Structures are given as structure tokens and as C-alpha cells.
Amino acid sequence: MEGRQIRKREEKSGGLIEKLIPGPVLQRERRIIIGILILLSAALIFFSFFLPFWNFTLHAPQYPEGLHLKLYLNKVKGEVMEVDILNHYIGMKKLEEAAKFERKIAFWGVLLLSLGMLGFVFSGRKSMILFSLLPIVFLIAFVGDLFFWLYKYGHDLDPAAPIKIEPFTPKIFGKGKVGQFETVASFGAGFYMILLAFVFSISAFFLRVGVCNACPAKEKCSVVCKLRWKAKPEDYERVS
Rounded to 10 degrees, what is the CA torsion of 122, 123, 125, 128? Predict the structure, then answer.
């Protein structure tokens, strides 16, 4: 009776370990899931280019419905002309003059980033984290560049402008105030698509840690995966 209970506990424990510790079958399933996550991440990055990354609205009594701007990686849409007219009175440059270089290379940058995510599949243990972090690095660069141009436009005002106001930096996120205007800023769908791509890529990283730890060539692993994930399931060692 006691021996039977011990065997049951061992079987139960073994089943739990099989779920937590990567085995041959789980390796194959994990690799499929990792591949899907990376493909989704690359697709999200590419299609984010066609959606706005940042939204900005100005509210004032004379504009009860507000003036809306949508910032894409390569253009600005919305009531651009009306905002440029208002900016002219305080000595601010036209919106189209900002980030010309960034807008010019935006598509190729996004395309390169999207294709670069596929490098995760061929990377070794020592470099896979770099590929998984690419989306969040891109977002940090975007926010930094956006802040730079907001600061530059708000401080590089024409001294001969009809209306004099103190230099300012519009808020990147949340409510703010510019002169008599109340402002509301928020990130757009494109930004959140890249953020979701990062969630997928970092999830793929943690799943792949288990695969790499069980890989027969883990001690010989370098920047590039030598096996290219071609090892057969039975080649993987069980971790205990």
C-alpha cells in the first residue's frame, strides 16, 4: 500500500517536471511557438509603419472640437494647416520642416527592423537577447527623437513673431498647456503595435532559453547558432 502511494507520488512529480523542464517533445513545440512569435513580431513592426505613432490635440474656446494632429513615422496628418497658422503667430516653424531626415529613412528603417527580427532564429545564446530587444530600442529612439523636436520647436521661436510667449516643450503624453491652448497627447496604434512586438519577442526569448539550455551544443554556442535548430528531438538532453 505504502509502495503504491510512493509510486503515485513519483508519477505525479514526474508529470509536473515534464511540464516545467524541457524534454524532446517540448523542445519541438517550443521551437514552433518561438518561430510564430518572431514572425508575429516582425509583421507587427512592418505594418506599424502605416499607422500613427503619436496623437496631439489642441483645445481652445475658438476651437471647441479641438485641432487634431496624427504623427506617422513619415508624415503628419490632420489639421496641419490650421496648426501651422497658429504656430506662425508665436514664431514656430512649420511642422513639415521637422525631422526631415527621419521621415525620409523611416520606411527603410522599419523594413530593416522587421527583417532583423528574423535574425533571432539564427542567433546563438550570446546574441539572441539583442534581437529580442530591438523593438523596445526602436521605441526609445522614437520617443527621444520626438522629445528633441518638441523641445527644439518650442524653444527655437522667432523673436520677431507677433505674439511673445515663454519657450516651452509640449508634453509627449497626457494633458498640458501651450499659451491659451490646452493640449492632450497620446501614443498611437503604431506605437502600441511595436510595444506588442516587443512583448512577443521577449516571450520568445524566455521560451528559447529553455531550448538553448537543453541543446547538445550549448557549450559550443556562439553569436550564430551552429545547429540552426536542426537537431533532432532525441538529440536534446533532459535537464534534471
Answer: -120
CA–CA dist 72, 55 (Å, integer): 9
The reported pTM is 0.81
Mention every residue, 6+ apart, whose C-beta is less than 8 A from residue 116: 131, 134
Nearest C-alpha neighbor of 200 from the set 135, 139, 141, 126: 135
CB contact set of 161 (below 8 Å; sequence gap of 6+): 88, 89, 90, 91, 92
**What distance in Å separates the CA atoms of residue 166 and residue 154, rounded to the nearest whole number?**
9
189: its cell numbers: 496604434
* CA–CA gap between residue 135 and residue 160 (Å, rounded): 42
Q: Which residue has the cell 524566455?
A: 206
Query: What's the DSSP call for residue 158?
Result: -
CA distances, 115 to each of 39, 93, 122, 205 (Å): 10, 36, 12, 17
Q: Cell numbers at residue 119, please?
A: 535574425
pLDDT, tens digit (0-9, with 9 covering 90-100), for 84-114: 888 888 888 889 999 999 999 999 999 999 9
pLDDT digits (tens, 9 = 90+) for 40-91: 999 999 999 999 999 999 988 788 788 999 999 999 999 999 988 888 888 8
Rounded-to-10 torsion of CA 220, 224, 226, 230: 130
Cβ neighbours of residue 32 closer than 8 Å, sequence gap 6 or more: none
Contact by Cβ (8 Å): 185, 174: yes
